[in-house]
Write a structure and sequence with these properties.
This protein is mainly alpha-helical and 264 residues long. Helices cover 53% and strands 0% of the residues. It folds into two domains: 60 residues, no CATH class; 174 residues, Orthogonal Bundle (Hypothetical protein af1432). Bound molecules: fe (ii) ion (FE2) (2 copies). One fe (ii) ion binds next to helix 5.
Length: 264
């Protein structure tokens, strides 16, 4: 606590109530401890739905008396004022091996640049926002900055990955049997989305995402973002104000990733 804050706090306390000197000192010490402590993270409601209410309340109770986290969180890498997609990769999504490996596979397969970009960014929803419905989150997150085909393909890879296409050698991922059980059936909306996507002119772009999606992590491959810098430069419309500050309909989503631990 600096001198000015100290004097303001002391003045406010003295003025509000005629506290004894020891009571003032105690209150001041308490507020200094609170300020020095790492500000606790209060989890978003989305992370709390399946938890017992008592547990959530106990956690909130433990944050009483602490200042709440707002703005730059010292536990996270500081983002520049005008962040680019590369900054987000480096300072928020890293190591992002699944994205880099999928993008690298698409590059090795000689696919066109937009499809490579779609493969590189296909699970950005998981890395930035939420696992559930990640294709939709990711697609919306990127929509103002990539071609319509790229965001469309990212949206529909979510449904298509559940449905084999023997004509291009795509099988149901073995890992999904481990994850979801052998009798798992996707929700009706997922089936409908896959049916719709199969008949769409951009079907193969979304299908390529599922083909180049690495369902098993390969520890021997460690591609870096350098491989994709030119492709990003040509196919990602970086806003000059920085992602999060360009007033786009999804700017708030990027800001949420910049300051993910804000209390409100
Ligand atoms: Fe995915
Ligand atoms: Fe994936």
């Amino acid at each position: 606590m600096n001198r000015r804050t100290f004097l303001t706090a002391a003045g406010a306390m003295g003025a509000a109530k005629a506290l004894s000197f020891s009571a003032q000192a105690e209150a001041l010490e308490e507020s200094m401890i609170a300020e020095l402590d790492a500000r606790p993270i209060v989890r978003s409601r989305l992370c709390n739905f399946a938890r017992p209410e008592e547990e959530i309340q106990a956690e909130l109770e433990a944050t009483r008396g602490h200042l709440k986290q707002m703005g730059n969180d010292a536990r996270l890498a500081l983002m520049p004022e005008k962040p680019t997609l590369v900054d987000f990769f480096e300072k928020r999504f890293a190591p992002a091996r699944h994205l880099l490996q999928s993008g690298a596979l698409a590059l090795e397969s000689g696919l066109d640049e937009e499809t490579v970009l779609a493969c590189l960014l296909h699970d950005i929803g998981v890395f930035a926002l939420a696992r559930n419905d990640h294709g939709y989150w990711g697609s919306q997150f990127l929509e103002p900055y990539v071609s319509e085909r790229v965001s469309w393909a990212i949206r529909y890879h979510q449904a298509l990955r559940f449905f084999p296409d023997p004509s291009v050698g795509y099988e149901y991922p073995a890992s999904y049997i481990r994850y979801f059980g052998k009798d798992y059936e996707p929700e009706p909306y997922v089936k409908e989305a896959a049916e719709y996507a199969k008949n769409h002119r951009w079907y193969m772009t979304a299908r390529q995402i599922t083909i180049n999606d690495l369902y098993a992590f390969d520890p021997d491959k460690n591609p870096t973002l350098d491989l994709f810098i030119d492709i990003i430069g040509r196919n990602f419309k970086q806003p000059k104000e920085g992602l999060g500050f360009d007033g786009s309909p999804v700017a708030h989503m990027w800001r949420t990733v910049i300051w993910p631990t804000n209390f409100l």
